[in-house]
Amino acid sequence: MSYRNYTTAQLQEIDNAHHMHPFTDSDGLRKEGTRVITHADGAYIHDSEGNAILDGMAGLWCVNVGYGREELATAAYEQMQELPYYNTFFKTTNPPAALLAKRIAELAPDHMNQVFFGASGSESNDTAIRTVRHYWAVKGKPEKHIIIARENAYHGSTIAATSMGGMSAMHGQMGPALPGFMHVMAPYDFEEAHEGETRAEFGLRAAKAVEDAILEAGAENVAAFVGEPIQGAGGVKIPPETYWPEVQRICHKYDVLLMLDEVITGFGRTGAWFAAQSMGIQPDTMTLAKGITSGYQPLSAVVLSDEIANTIASSGEYFHGYTYSGHPVACAVALANIDIIDREGLVERVRGETGPALTNALVEALADHPLVGEVRGFGLLAAIEIVKDRQTRERFDDSAEAAVIVRDAAIEAGMMLRAVGGTMILSPPLIWTQKEIDEAARIARVAFDRAGEELLK
Ligand code: PXG
Questions:
Q1: Would the CB of 120 count as within 6 Å of ligand 1?
Q2: pLDDT the model gives residue 287
Q3: Considering the domain boundaries, does residue 16 fall inside one?
Q4: Of all atoms in ligand 1, which is nearest to the CA of residue 153?
Q5: According to the model, what pLDDT value does residue 3 have?
Q6: Could you tell me the residue range of the domain that residue 371 belongs to?
Q7: Atom of ligand 1 at shortest range from CA of 425
Q8: Residue numbers of the chain with a pLDDT score lower than 50
Q9: What pLDDT, on the 0 to 100 scale, is given for residue 57?
């Protein structure tokens, strides 16, 4: 293609002049110059300077089956030739959309059998918000509209998803938040547990915050509680085992729906098709995106309980939908992607092999490092806490800057990972084997050693 004729400098200049990037300090980026990613294969991305970089983030938590899957390209190509687009509004469907909805229903918990499609995780969360509120209205309880979410939650960047999310920096940049959302503490024991409190006790205390919020709002006003099974962009916060069952019990007690945002945790990342299954909980809605197509096409879904789907079905037209709801190409790619995950046993591998192996390798490489306060993992999600003092867990004054130093050192040493506040994150493709895991642990150690030279001098 003709863009191959451009030099890196030319592309950077054009990008600087015209391309506004998401979640980016644009002036800073322009000074630094953006990295041009040109191609990728398997577990590696390649930039225009000829560097091969091990992708510890699966793109943005999404390329579950790794890069360069011809099968997915073929699925898209064939579907584009056969039917590139048609809507699903006017009493029409298309084969990939119908078959994908069935496939997802089969993989989801038994009581969830209806799927509503969108094009992004943010959209799917907007759909979930509207849908639970509409559900309660149809049930004759329109006052049940408040959704309780958590601090530091990331549910997307639309106004509704930002209002539901718990990122204070984002709240500062949207004018007034939408009404009807409350935020409670996240189950983040590394920073929030009291002295002497066990993890199990902390999990119950964090769940109690949900109950307190329900009582504060009045259960008759609360539609749902929403959470990522493991907070992703908030810093791979893995709740204690006591947390989710207790949250579920509280939701039942007060007739409050449980909405899970499985945009990151879906499609094998936690060692089950969905984290609801890993954690033994029964949600009423599940939002999915990212791994649904391994990022090869934009697609998202909301999976609904039979109770919600049937209630809404019984109430006439639901005025909600997107041009790309049930997009045939995206759905065809998703079906082929799910086939790969299934055929290659990636879910089982994450659960029994690669998940535990990644955590073990990082613990072995880093647990004794002077900058490391904790290494934790669940499935193929891992986090490393950066501290100034291992004993007291004191953070650096600018802990986010410390994490950026580690991240840049890792990229320099050949691995892409993510810095969130004072935490380093890994969320690799599910195709990683012991070889990539060992390589990741080795590079992480190099990066922490280099950062240590700068931060601990
Ligand atoms: N829910 C969760 C749990 C997510 O992680 C979304 C919803 C929104 O999805 P869309 O497709 O609208 O982006 C996400 C997205 C980061 C980062 O910095 C994470 C996401 C997006 C952008 C950046 O880790 N997650």
A1: yes
A2: 98
A3: no
A4: 3
A5: 74
A6: 35-65+345-455
A7: 24
A8: none
A9: 98
